[in-house]
Amino acid sequence: MKFRDTNVQQGAELELAPMVDVVFLLLIFFIVTWQFARFERDMDISVPAAEETTDEPRNVGEIIVNVREDGSIVLNGLEVSEEELLAKLKSISEAYPDQAVILRGSSEANFQAIINVLDEIKKAGIWNVAFATTKPQT
Predict the structure, then answer these.
(1) 73: which strand partners?
(2) Most CB atoms within 10 A, among 24, 78, 108, 124?
(3) pTM above threshold 0.70
(4) CA 114 to chain centre
(5) Apex CA 77: angle with CA 76 and CA 80, to 5°?
(6) How far apart are CA 132 and CA 26, in angstroms?
């Protein structure tokens, strides 16, 4: 009769299902955070510096309007004209009356181009507007 040897331990097996779950959760997290960050990054925009700037947390669904140095307007990554900007902002403000808009005007842009965009935002009925700035480099 052969008895089992109780001193021999079986090797532990590596469970792949929990590891795959963690990897997918990390992948989803990075894709979602990348999606929010890519609208903020427009390489042609260098916003002006201000002493009293604050880093406030980003809200989901914020609209970012960039005014480049040449006066072109970029709405959430898409280049639009003033008429298209007005039409899109009007439809958004009708659906969401308290919609926040962040206006990022290049420090080299013509001031009148930024005022024209601000005027279009006002015509669309959006009152919640913030201007993006950076802290001065010391």
Answers:
(1) 67, 80
(2) 124
(3) no
(4) 20
(5) 85
(6) 30
Contacts of 66 (CB under 8 A, 6+ apart): 42, 44, 45, 73, 74, 75, 104, 105, 106
Which amino acid is it at 41? R
Inter-CA distances, 117 with 93, 110, 127, Å: 15, 11, 13
What residue type is assigned to position 21 of the chain?
A: D
Q: Domains, the chain, ranges and CATH?
A: 39-131 (3.30.420.270)
Q: What is the rounded distance in angstroms from the CA atom of residue 47 to the CA atom of residue 66?
A: 10
Instruction: Give me the average pLDDT of each 10-residue run along the chain (138 residues).
Output: 64 82 92 66 55 60 84 87 92 87 83 88 87 70
